[in-house]
Amino acid sequence: MEKFFKLKEHGTTTSTEIIAGITTFLSMVYILAVNPNILSAAGMDGAAVFTATAVSATVATLFMAFFANYPVALASGMGLNAYFAYSVCIPMAKAGINDPWKIALAAVLIEGIVFVLLSLTSFREKLVNEVPANLKYGITAGIGLFIVLVGLKGAGIVISSTATLVDLGHVGTPQFVLAMIGFFCICAMVRKNVPGAVLWGILITWILGIIAEKTGWYHVDPAAGAFSLVPAKIFSIPSAPHIGQFDFAWISQNLINFLVITFSFLFVDLFDTVGTLIGVASKGNLLDENGNLPRAKGALLADAFGTIFGAIVGTSTVTSYVESSAGVAAGGRTGLTAVTSAVMFAVALFFSPVFLAIPGFATTPALMYVGLLMVSSIKNIDFDSDIADTAAAFCAITFMPFTYSIANGIMFGMISWVLLKVIGGKIKEVSPVMWVSFALFALRIGTLIAGIGFH
């Protein structure tokens, strides 16, 4: 273990690494409850998604441990799973397309393959660097607002309104009250530096929900989507995941739509992964003297192979988790931390009834808090810079929640940036990467105007 992970060289011990790995797992295990909840909205089987989420997290995190020796864990990405379900699958289903999640999984598979190719070169880092900083921060903040909206809607805190489009839900429902209590609990525990605050917030909300069910406040009504919160059993053999369930037939007739879907997955995952790796490495003093990430290629390849594996077993894009910083804060410095987290995900695989009994309103606090963290990137936007930069960030932030689509935010953010640069006489500042992005999204808008594909 010392020979492979170089514990002494990194100033750590086996016990420290194991504790750090458990800490990372506790800080991100909420994904095992959240991901089946979100992808069920895409028409996927929740139990199968749970299995795919746990298995892919285990394998991808082991990739990171052995490819890069970093204390970073991976799992299905927040924001990317919301894009998968709400921006891709649900609009397709409304357009009459059967099993749209099979098309979305195909897009994730292609994205992963492209990422492998990009990770073998320096192009992936170059792509990140050539997108305006303001737009990057705007996209992150927009995704944060979108995730919050998904969570608020799931708990009935925000409801639809024919008069005002959206409205405040019924404040006295157990879903509304308990979701807010859970969010306040997470914030309070974060303030007190409690490890695994997000997980504890979910569990507290769920336990209070069980009490509400037993006392008659929460009424079980499967027809209305209100299921019993008490798991029928604790231990279970994992359900078979959606292995190899891809639909490539639709792609040949809807190539532009498919390219936009794939590019949006690619784009969001790109910044999520690189930003997370740099952030976690910086927190653990793992960057070199020039501020660069050693063994970056191995880390990026681990992320890419994790995405491919995740698509094959049936889950949305797998990516590096910023919650890994919790393990780093606990002393984690090597891949042994990641191995420990991977083992914990493998063990959790056999307790699916517990995780699947956790209701949507109990995961709302987690979505709200993750959204809060992502929205905080807005403070990095330079509002005194070129109007093209600020307008692009603004479009990304506003279009995502207000059009209920992450892809729309990216699309209008990039298009507005290129157009305003051209109008402002700064066409030389538009890189080839941005021109390609502009052309792709312009084609997408053309298909929407012509009524081609889904909306």
From TrEMBL:
Main location: membrane
Signal peptide: none
Entry's transmembrane regions: 12-34, 46-68, 103-123, 135-159, 171-190, 197-212, 255-280, 300-322, 342-370, 391-420, 432-454
One example GO MF annotation: purine nucleobase transmembrane transporter activity
GO terms under cellular component: plasma membrane
Membrane topology field: Multi-pass membrane protein
UniProt-listed Pfam families: Xan_ur_permease
Keywords, comma-separated and alphabetical: Cell membrane, Membrane, Transmembrane, Transmembrane helix, Transport
Localization in the cell: Cell membrane
Top-level taxon of origin: Bacteria
PANTHER family associated with the record: XANTHINE/URACIL PERMEASE C887.17-RELATED, XANTHINE_URACIL PERMEASE C887.17-RELATED
Similarity field: Belongs to the nucleobase:cation symporter-2 (NCS2) (TC 2.A.40) family. Azg-like subfamily.
UniProt protein name: Guanine permease
Organism classification: Bacteria, Bacillati, Bacillota, Clostridia, Peptostreptococcales
